Amino acid sequence: MTADADDQWAPRRAAMVSLIRAMGVRDQRVLSVMAALPRHRFVPGNLRDAAYEDGALPIGLGQTISQPYMVAAMTEALALTGTERVLEIGTGSGYQAAVLAGLAREVVTVERLPELADRARMRFAELGLNNITAHVADGTVGVPALAPFDAILVSAGAPAVPEPLAAQLAEGGRLVIPVGGPRVQTLYRYRKEDGEMKGEALFDCLFVPLVGRHGWPAG
Ligand code: SAH
């Protein structure tokens, strides 16, 4: 697709970002990255018209691309400055990882479903996002070989904070994760201070389940 063909989406994208700002997200770096990132390239072709509405959309295999406001609020909560190595669990479409890639030095993203990881990798390559590495694995065990991480974002709903993720967070690092039951969760932000996880509840949310060894059982 040419840059010109992409430009037709710019007004809708600007309106989406204005709405996110009005909903309370104030980090200008987050808003700027989202104002430039073509979300329509992360949704199935038949849903492109809805790409800049503030809602989650199906991406196949029972999974969803998160609501833009949720992506913005979770990213803002990580307080990224540009120097961080970030771990994301739940690549899905790759949109959240692409937002993080514009705000941090390096992004490691993990997806359990190979088909989704393949599609996301193609999008990263097409968009020239070469500071993202996509892995296919159970993200609830983290990525011990690449730890520690300055920030960790979990894009699926967990029954509790997976212990390996807490262990792989650097001192001073931030972990943002939805924790709760299958039908509603609370978004938490943790900071590791003197080796201890200090948590703060942000707001209620709804994510697809985090399935894995330190998450929900499959099926
Ligand atoms: N961040 C994504 C949202 C994806 S929805 C986006 O921007 O589009 C959550 C994703 O988490 C799904 O793709 C699901 O397959 C994945 N997931 C669930 N449990 C997982 C696990 N244990 N490890 C890695 N990915 C997982």
Radius of gyration (CA) equals: 16 Å
Distance between the termini: 38 Å
Number of strands: 9
Largest sheet: 7 strands, mixed
Whole-number tally of structural domains: 1
Order of helices and strands: HHHEEHEHEHEEHEEE
Q: What count of helical segments does DSSP give?
A: 7
CATH names the topology as: Rossmann fold
Describe this structure in words.
Helix 2 packs antiparallel against helix 3. The protein is 28% helix and 27% strand. It starts with a helix and ends in a 14-residue tail after the last strand. The protein has a single domain (10-205), classed as Rossmann fold (3-Layer(aba) Sandwich), CATH 3.40.50. The protein is of the alpha/beta class and 219 residues long. The mean pLDDT is 96. The site of S-adenosyl-L-homocysteine has 25 residues, from strand 2, helix 5 and strand 4.
